[in-house]
Amino acid sequence: MRRRIVLSLAIMLIWDWGSLVSSHHDYKDALAKAIVFFEAQRSGRLPSDQSIKWRLDSGLSDGSTVNVDLSGGYYDAGDNVKFGLPMAFTTTMLSWSVLEFGRRMGNELDQAHKAIRWGTDYLLKATSALPNALYVQVGDPVADHQCWQRAEDTDTPRTVYNVSPANPGSDVAGETAAALAAASKVFKKVDPDYSKTLLDAAGKAFDFADRYRGAYSDHLSEAVCPFYCSYSGYLDELLWGAAWMFKATHNSSYLDYAQALGANAPCDTFSWDNKLAGARVLLSKGSHVKNDEPLAEFRSQAENFMCSVLPGSPMLKIEYTPGGLLHKMNASNMQYVTSTTFLLSTYAKYMKHLDRTFTCGSLVVTPALLREVAKSQVDYVLGDNPRGMSYMVGYGDKFPQHIHHRGSSLPSITINTQRIGCDAGFQSLKDSNPNPNLLLGAIVGGPDKFDSFTDDRNNYAQTEPTTYINAPLVGPLAYLASSFN
């Protein structure tokens, strides 16, 4: 047993490139840039305090085809479509980041609030027709992906897609409920009236998700697949939505619902598609519960997840690259890195609050261990890796220059005011020069399982940034910024 513990610690030291390269990064700077990134992803009429100046208004008539104002919200990645499922997940994770680590954000807290509100303002519009319809997407993704255009020039169909009682979407509705409920907690003291509006809409979205059960990709497959199919089904979103409704309302019926749901499948991932691990961590901390027993099951499941991702754990289910990066899949792997890092950081906080440890076989897991693993992942992202490259655009001296992002790669409309057509933009996609517009703070898809990375716009699996990669890292960056800067 002693040999296994020593071996586990040795593995941790080998994989902690941060301890070999630098003691810590400028996490405060990285935090600010991670939040600024969301400004570049905005759709709609941009505010006067917009700091990303190479972007202008876009999508102002979104929703007009169905006589609903669906302007605003976020483009998910390097394209010009507004996908509701990842947008809601992004908003939930930004809110959770503020709820757990907002006190550590300093001057960036106000910016985080603005990033959340840009998402929730749109989600309120998307829920305006409930219980008859929930609007879940704006833009034809097939047509959009056949063009390389700036958001300001988009002329592909801005088709509006929805779910309804006849064509349900418990997954996207459950995630929307989670986003609105989580944000209602963020704004409870900052803007009580807005908080109540968000919570009311969250309740309607959750009731809709539960009453009309089904996966949205069952009937919207041509619009959402293969981009954001509901691969994990919808029970995880019902659990996630119930967990956030419980946290926002303190109504024990939502906890009872979560316990009775039967969403007990093992899980070694947390993402825009699968929320089981996130819900279990969220419900593992006692709050507004008269006794601890109802949370024991969720706590055990949360710790099983930790054991499945911790280096040196005999229950390890995922891989790590030779340089120490958590690896789930080659395409956009950073989304799993940042989401797992968030759960490690948050559960460490819960453990410290409860004065708790647990074991993965012979490996004793403490809050300090979870935080060290989380820090090693953040440090890898910021440059402590075999390539010495920061995977956050604009952070450090070496970062990706040819990211797969239309607006970043094309001449800014503030400089080139002439419309760039669907096909004309492909010249910029193929151009070997660096992107002319800095997508500050964007975290790209990242390296493969061998720490290899090709900085090429056509290599979208590695060079495309997404909102749901950035959002989960905001919390850990805030924690590290307050601890080391």
UniProtKB/TrEMBL annotation:
Highest classification ranks of the organism: Eukaryota, Viridiplantae, Streptophyta, Embryophyta, Tracheophyta
InterPro entries under this entry?
A: 6-hairpin_glycosidase_sf, 6hp_glycosidase-like_sf, Glyco_hydro_9, Glyco_hydro_9_Asp/Glu_AS, Glyco_hydro_9_His_AS
Q: Which family does it belong to?
A: Belongs to the glycosyl hydrolase 9 (cellulase E) family.
Q: What is its EC number?
A: 3.2.1.4
Q: Which GO terms describe its molecular function?
A: cellulase activity
Identify the catalytic residues: 404, 455, 464
What UniProt keywords apply to this chain's record, in alphabetical order?
A: Carbohydrate metabolism, Cellulose degradation, Glycosidase, Hydrolase, Polysaccharide degradation, Signal
Q: Which residues form the signal peptide?
A: 1-23
- Segments forming domain Glycoside hydrolase family: 27-476
Q: What is this protein called?
A: Endoglucanase
- Record's catalysed reaction(s): Endohydrolysis of (1->4)-beta-D-glucosidic linkages in cellulose, lichenin and cereal beta-D-glucans
Q: Which Pfam families match?
A: Glyco_hydro_9
On whether DNA-binding is a keyword of this UniProt record, the answer is no
Which Gene3D superfamilies does the record associate with it? 1.50.10.10
